[in-house]
Amino acid sequence: MREERPDVQALSGTDSHVYEAVAGLAVDGRSATVDEVIHATALPEEAVRHSLDTLTELGWLKVAGSAYSLGPHQWGLEY
């Protein structure tokens, strides 16, 4: 049985900030690298890597090689 993931609005401030950085690049059809997320968020690398791992484990993001993209979702992006 698959565990329900929390609502994206329930994410921590750091996780939410990192998720929004990845989502911002997704608007342009791009995946996000760790360096791009660090640049977009101005967060320390360790915090970004931890958040990316957490968001991937929760299913909010998916990873392919060294890039992250949005996981399955049922809403549209309006940026």
Q: Can you tell me about this structure?
A:
With 79 residues, the chain is of the alpha+beta class. The protein has one domain: Orthogonal Bundle (Arc Repressor Mutant, subunit A), CATH 1.10.10.10. The protein is built from three helices and three strands. It has helices at residues 13-26, 34-41, 45-57, and strands at 32-33, 61-64, 67-70. Strands 1-3-2 form a three-stranded antiparallel sheet. Strand 2 (61-64) and strand 3 form a beta hairpin. Helix 2 packs across helix 3. The longest helix has 14 residues, at 13-26. The chain is globular. The model has no long low-confidence stretch (mean pLDDT 85). InterPro entries: WH-like_DNA-bd_sf (IPR036388).
The tally of helices reads 3
Tally the beta strands. 3
Major sheet, described briefly?
A: 3 strands, antiparallel
The CATH superfamily label reads: Winged helix-like DNA-binding domain superfamily/Winged helix DNA-binding domain
Give the overall silhouette: globular
C-alpha-based Rg, rounded: 12 Å
Strand content: 5-15%
Helix-strand makeup class: alpha+beta
**Overall pLDDT score:** 85
The share of residues in helices is 40-55%
Q: What distance lies between the first and last C-alpha atoms, to the nearest angstrom? A: 34 Å
- The ordered H/E elements are HEHHEE
Reading off the top of the CATH hierarchy, the class is best stated as: Mainly Alpha
CATH topology, what is it called?
Arc Repressor Mutant, subunit A
Placed side by side, the strands forming the largest sheet appear as: 1-3-2
